[in-house]
Amino acid sequence: METRPRPPSRRAFLRSAALGAGLAVVPRHVLGGPAQEPPSETFAVGIVGCGGQSGEDVRNYIGHAGGAYKILACCDVDQRRLAQAAKKKFAGAEPYTDFRRLVERTDLDIVSVATPPHWHALIAIAAMEAGKDVLCEKPMTRFIAEGRAVVDAAKRYGRVFQLGTGRRFGASRSNRSRQVHKIMRSGLLEKTDAVHVLKGGYGVKRYCGRVNLKPEPCPPHLDWDMYCGPAPLRPFNRHRFGWSHRFYWDYEGAGLTDLGAHKMDPVQWRYAKDTTSPVEIRAYAPPAHPEACGMWGWAELSYADGFTIVLDGGEWGKPYEREKTHHVDLGDLDEESQQKVKAMPQPEPLLTFPQAVRTRKKSAGHAEAAHRAVAALHLANIAIRMGRTIRYDPVKEQIVGDEEANRLVNQPMRAPWHL
Amino acid sequence: MPAPAELKALIDQMPDHEKNGLLPKDIDKERIEKAIAQIAEGGRPYVLGILDRLLPPGKGDDSKPHYALHVLGVHLSQLEDDAPRRQFGQALASRLGDDTPVGVRKYLCQELGTAGGAEAVPALGKLLTDSELCEPAARALVAIREGAAQQLRAARPRTRARNRVTIVQNLGVLADEQALEALREALGDSSQDVRIAAAWALANIGDADSADRLLKAADTHKGWERIQETKACLLLAEKLLGADRKADAQRIYKHLRDTRTADAEKYVREAAEAALAAI
Hints:
Mean pLDDT of chain A: 91
Mean pLDDT of chain B: 96
Shape of chain B: elongated
Strand content of chain B: under 5%
Oligomer: heterodimer
Number of helices of chain B: 15
Low-confidence stretches of chain B: none
Distance between the termini of chain B: 65 Å
Strand order of the largest sheet of chain A: 3-2-1-4-5-6
Largest interface: A-B, 57 and 67 residues
Radius of gyration of chain A: 22 Å
Largest sheet of chain A: 6 strands, parallel
Largest sheet of chain B: none
Number of strands of chain A: 12
Helix content of chain B: 55-70%
Shape of chain A: globular
């Protein structure tokens, strides 16, 4: 990955002259600081996970946002893939097979997490604990408690977190979405019957796991134990590895979380739900398999104010006909409230990741927003997996009155990995 | 006791997978739910009948009973009457002994973690000293929670290698105050993983008396271990603040503020300063 070309600044020139040509990147955090103009405009990046998505977030959320970066380190549990990445894609980057060795480096500003999702939270947290800002692939987590732990770590260490979906940028530029956002944020609409149906595009049939998997010899270049990490250590089978890991509950939540993350992000921003979660979740799906993700029809996520998001898979069972999209509108308010909303300032522009890193403010896809978005999707999956309607407390982040369903909110991890 | 003949017909109602193992796209929700409700009515003999059909991975196709057992557990866990679910848990627990293949026992642990309860805890506890089954058993125990800490505590002195980490970590997950002494001792373990797990566990319990030990550990070590033990210190301070022990928390923050003077640890110093300012 090439650093985005830009003319050297005076500071960069002076710094390179002082340190010598051999040391091209000095981490921002060493020379700069929260209240200072950064002496280096180049972010030193370490990437964990060298698969297909690796480097995409760095390119999209730093490079395309006007930031310069250099990839100094990369990591993968597959030595063959790692060697290829270190040779070509991230040429010159130091290769690691253990992310712990990468995050403990003191010359990195940013860690980009591009592993399968069962590792996202743990690596993001570890990076923040080591003082790095984080770019994290979507879906942010594999289960709800992981998201809260990421939020806590970002807060504890004052780190910037950005999720790898940027669709809320588009929503925040739409006049229609901004008006809805203002109405919902104003608190003037106590109850609403608004419904937003997110129809199709979840790859229900494509994101389907296999059952009765036979143990296969693990390739010698793959550290399968480390790949499984916090998930159960099962016998190796190639379908659990690579792109198809998405089809197993151990590692992800199928297309509902993988593709749903993109769909939920702008809607959550539009309806100002970045700090809360649905309170009632019902789903239509056949009984779920214990390990493999399978079919589902739809899920309804209702918030405390009555607003409902519908995830309509559209690929299995009877077509969804219960609700139709009905937006929030100024007309839902009385005259006085309408005037108040009109007088409200426009929402502040969302910060890009480089802007957030430089100013130490929250980025657009910050940890809490990202957590709430994926938590809603996890809740849909829990309703599917438990085959029943569930009720959720968005403050305690617990399912109410259903002990067994609650076990999926905070799932045990295989030691030594813990939140 | 042999399972009634009807059971086979009910298990056969479970979905056939496609040739390549994929779950079927035309899966019939109503048919499966009806069959599972009938299996549930069959009680313990039917559960045992399903268990008899389970195979370890790679030893044949048990996909139908495998699926049926899970769906049955989920179904029973939503009934108002807890007795059938308890009976289910007892049946699974009864098959956790040595005469059941390890691969099947791992699956039973998983399913007890889904729908099991206190009735399965003693049987799961017996697996904690088994090198292969400790982890799946511990996973089920912390999912169940009730009575789990006692089993972990009892097993701790008899566990070796990686299983020591499993036990220590899960005592922390359960915030087991009765394990404090053992956890403090584990801070000096020869394994880095055990030391880190013990530090986190003590912090998660909110043990004020461990503050100095944790600070010393974090001060002494380098790299990953130092990062993790520093995290434990910050977590402990937060727990102490939550327990209204402001002075104890301040002491931890001040120590980190005053000792993390290197550029590379400026973020820790700033985190401690921010926390102190917020108190």
